[in-house]
Amino acid sequence: MADILVRDVDAKMLTRLKSRAKRNGRSLQSEAKSILESAAGFTAAEAMAAAKRWRQGLGRRRFSDSAALVREDRRR
Q: CB count, 10 Å around CB of 31?
């Protein structure tokens, strides 16, 4: 795995990152890695593959129209 170095981090931002890491029960390094992974997102090919897996998994399920249930609930 590669390493990354971020220089000149603002003190306020570092404090916010440390607070966020503590809230999430992670180290500062793990929190920063999580944020970077989230920001990087999927490539187009990865997104298409994930969507295909979802469609295949959902294709076997039966769904109903819930509009009537919502209307009934709103009348109460």
A: 19
Instruction: Give the CA radius of gyration of the chain.
Output: 21
Cβ contact 67:59 at 8 Å:
no
The tens digit of pLDDT for each residue in 3-40 reads 999 999 999 999 999 999 999 999 999 999 999 988 88
- By the 10 Å C-beta count (0-12 exposed, 13-18 middle, 19+ buried), 34 is classed as middle
CA distances from 40 to 3, 32, 47, 51, 60 (A): 16, 12, 12, 18, 32
d(CA 26, CA 17): 11
Give the per-residue pLDDT at 18. Answer: 96
**Predicted local distance difference test score (pLDDT) of residue 58:** 85
